[in-house]
Design a protein that fits this description.
- This protein has 25 helices and five strands.
- The protein is mainly α.
- The chain folds into two domains: 469 residues, Clc chloride channel; 133 residues, Roll (CBS-domain), CATH 3.10.580.
- The strands form two sheets. The protein has a three-stranded mixed beta sheet with strand order 1-2-3. A two-stranded antiparallel sheet has the order 4-5.
- Strand 2 and strand 3 form a beta hairpin.
- The two termini are 49 Å apart.
- It is found in: Membrane.
Length: 619
């Protein structure tokens, strides 16, 4: 770390070498964080659900089960009630851990990272990633319904923030590295480095905006984190997509876009319900007259009871338990053999996942919303595909294709991240034949779900972010020039260099002017003084005949040119705390054109801001 501090002092902000080094460090810590998170989560699963409850949650084909050979399979008979007990205990341990040491680690995690970016100068307390790693591994490992994207985003963002603080980087640099850490963690854990990099820049805003400064550092960090994480996997599974290599669906005719457009409408309805359930459930738990430490246990226990009730309803069909954990095992069947599950089971899993995820996450459990969103979107998509296959078999031959598109479309809408989601789903499935319908559905849900996003700490655009409020002021001021607003006042009082102080004092009584340019015999400006400068001589009238303007004036004065932008002018105002600046013709040195007031500069900014808001409202 000391070496990095020296490098930070040696290299400027814009130096490529500096950013390569910083991205490398963030990538390494993110890769190690992803490995630790994955190992701990799988270890908890083995020691609790597998060996105590006799239940080994099915995973996606590309997942690597790290402890299967070491610890073996279930050693106890399958017991649904043990699942409920384990989930409740996991929620309790997680709640005590989080609310005792780092309350900011509660919930999904992505929102907390977004809040740090926009409102906290990129600062995340150093203990949070460690607490989040343990709490999330326990929550998800004991069957809590959630995803891994939120926890890993906050974990790696926390590491990046801590590194930035140790290196004493600027607020802007810290924010960039924080976002790069988010992207690196997501890119590693889902084995999708490109999607992780785009996710880092896109997830910050709810409208169609992108944090461009983040993309390159996030790309470098994501590649390194991905490379490090995959090295912890066996060679035969390192580069296998999460849902296997056999998903090769084709888009054959534009007529297929009609049922896909209908899918987008159905996904929007589900998204509204999902967002509403999450927020409503959180409100209920916040109003509970109980310590926050025990709320995750209650949420996890209720989620477990919901799953057991559905298991009874479907006569012991364990695929319904996809409403617990990540649910990727049930989603794997939906994207490969949707017909084996049937429409009722698919829809119940989608609705049940919304409920169990809300109970787990909104109660304070440490889990993300991406995993549940994938399961909900995939199962709804598969159900819609099966429906259209029954109605128009000649048009829909592969209902599983709708599951793949539904995964992307649902999360693109509720997370406000269409580009990274499209790339992410393609990387998870290895299926690039559905790019066109995926783009259509993701675009439609992005527009129709704009009022129902999951991440409350997203802001619409860079203009709305406190992190960029100063940047926006600069952008507006740089769009205006001095010549647009400075004063061409024919009544401006100009003082000749030889005018006595006696004449100056008597002249002040007939003007409201505060700053007085001083010119030589050729009319060139050689200095300036203010009425405050003159007041220093008022108590000694014996000097009035002896002192002239040249003695009173400041010869090393600050001026602006007509072509200077108002940002430059404002910096010169503030550098000497001045209220007016002379405007000098750059082609005729010394020729005074007029005076620019600080008040006029601020008024021009406010008028332009009103115009921009009006134009934005019209569009």
């Amino acid at each position: 770390m000391r070496t990095l501090r020296r490098l930070n002092s040696a290299f400027g902000f814009q130096t490529s070498a500096k950013w390569i080094i910083l991205a490398t460090v963030v990538g390494v810590t993110s890769g190690l964080g992803a490995i630790a998170f994955d190992v701990l989560g799988q270890l908890v699963v083995r020691l609790t659900l597998v060996h105590v409850a006799g239940y080994a949650p099915p995973e996606a084909l590309g997942e690597h089960t790290r402890f299967e050979h070491m610890l073996g399979g279930p050693t106890a008979p399958f017991s649904p009630w043990w699942i409920v007990a384990i989930m409740t205990a996991g929620g309790l341990v997680s709640g005590i851990l989080v609310y005792t040491f780092a309350p900011e680690a509660a919930g999904a995690g992505t929102d907390a990272a977004l809040d740090a970016f926009h409102n906290r100068q990129g600062r995340i307390q150093a203990r949070i990633p460690f607490v989040k790693t343990l709490a999330s591994a326990i929550t998800l490992g004991t069957g809590g319904s959630g995803g891994r994207e939120g926890p890993i985003a906050q974990i790696c963002a926390g590491f990046a923030s801590a590194i930035s603080t140790q290196l004493k980087l600027s607020h802007r640099e810290r924010r960039i590295l924080l976002a790069a850490g988010m992207g690196a963690g997501v890119g590693a854990i889902f084995r999708a480095p490109l999607a992780g990099a785009i996710f880092a820049g896109e997830i910050l805003y709810s409208d169609a905006d992108l944090e461009a400064d983040v993309i390159l550092p996030a790309s470098a960090a994501s590649v390194i984190a991905y490379s490090l994480y995959t090295q912890s996997l066996p060679p035969d599974s390192r580069f296998v997509p999460l849902f296997g290599e056999d998903l090769q669906h084709l888009f054959s005719t534009p007529l297929e876009l009609i049922p896909y457009a209908i899918l987008a409408i159905i996904l929007t309805i589900m998204a509204i319900g999902y967002a509403g359930i999450l927020r409503g459930t959180r409100g209920l738990f916040e109003r509970m007259p109980l310590p926050p430490h025990v709320r995750p246990a209650i949420g996890a226990g209720l989620a477990g009871l919901t799953a057991i009730g559905l298991l009874k309803l479907f006569q012991g069909d364990e695929r319904i338990l996809g409403v617990l954990g990540t649910g990727y095992g049930s989603l794997q069947v939906a994207v490969t053999a949707a017909g084996q599950m049937g429409i009722p089971l698919l829809l119940v899993i989608a609705i049940g996942k919304s409920v169990t995820a809300a109970l787990t996450i909104s109660s304070g459990g440490a889990g993300g919303v991406f995993g549940p969103s994938m399961v909900i979107g995939g199962c709804v998509g598969a159900a819609v595909g099966l429906t259209f296959q029954a109605i128009v078999p000649s048009l829909v031959s592969e209902p599983e294709a709708f599951a793949v598109v539904g995964m992307a479309g649902f999360f693109a809408g509720v997370a406000r991240a269409p580009i990274s989601t499209i790339i992410m789903v393609r990387a998870l499935t290895g299926d690039y034949g559905l790019l066109l319908p995926t783009m259509l559905v993701s675009t439609l849900t992005f527009f129709t779900c704009r009022r129902f996003n999951l991440y409350e700490k997203q802001v619409p655009t860079r203009m709305d972010s406190r992190a960029h409020r100063g940047d926006f002021i600069v952008d507006v001021l740089e769009g205006l020039q001095v010549q647009d607003i400075f004063r061409h006042d024919p009544r401006l009082v100009v003082i000749s260099e030889g005018m006595t102080l006696d004449d100056i004092v008597h002249g002040l009584a007939y003007t409201n002017q505060h700053y007085f340019p001083v010119v030589d015999s050729e009319g060139k400006m050689i200095g300036i003084f203010s009425d405050e400068d003159v007041r220093a001589y008022l108590y000694d009238d014996t000097l009035w005949k002896l002192v002239n303007a040249e003695d009173v004036m400041i010869s090393n004065f600050i001026a602006v040119a007509p072509q200077d932008n108002l940002n430059t002018a404002l910096k010169r105002f503030t550098s000497m705390n001045l209220d007016e600046l002379p405007v000098i013709d750059p082609e005729q040195p010394g020729k005074l054109l007029g005076m620019l007031r600080r008040k006029e500069t601020i008024d021009a900014y406010n008028r332009r801001l009103v115009e921009l808001k009006r134009v934005e409202g019209e569009h």
